[in-house]
Design brief:
Elements: E1 3-5, E2 11-17, E3 22-27, E4 32-35, H1 40-48, H2 52-59, E5 66-69
Antiparallel strand pairs: 1-2, 2-3, 3-4, 4-5
């Protein structure tokens, strides 16, 4: 999964696999987490949000199942 850099308080990078709906976020502290079955439109809105951290808290965190991940390919 290709990730792109993010400039937010919480995240340093993000990646998305549209086939599986896996959203992978790397936190500033280096830990990584994956959210499952995220619709592509939600990922696109997250990337386009003026405040990605606030969008994450209101529209992703707690709404989709998440698992700890490791940096690297799926």
């Amino acid at each position: 999964m290709k990730r792109h850099d993010m400039n937010t308080t919480l995240f340093s990078s993000a990646g998305f696999d549209p086939t599986s709906g896996v959203l992978e976020l790397e936190y500033r502290n280096g830990s990584c987490r994956r959210w499952l079955a995220v619709p592509a439109r939600v990922y696109q809105a997250f990337c386009a949000a003026a405040d990605a951290d606030a969008f994450f808290r209101s529209s992703i965190d707690g709404r989709y199942l998440s698992v700890r991940g490791q940096s690297g390919p799926l």
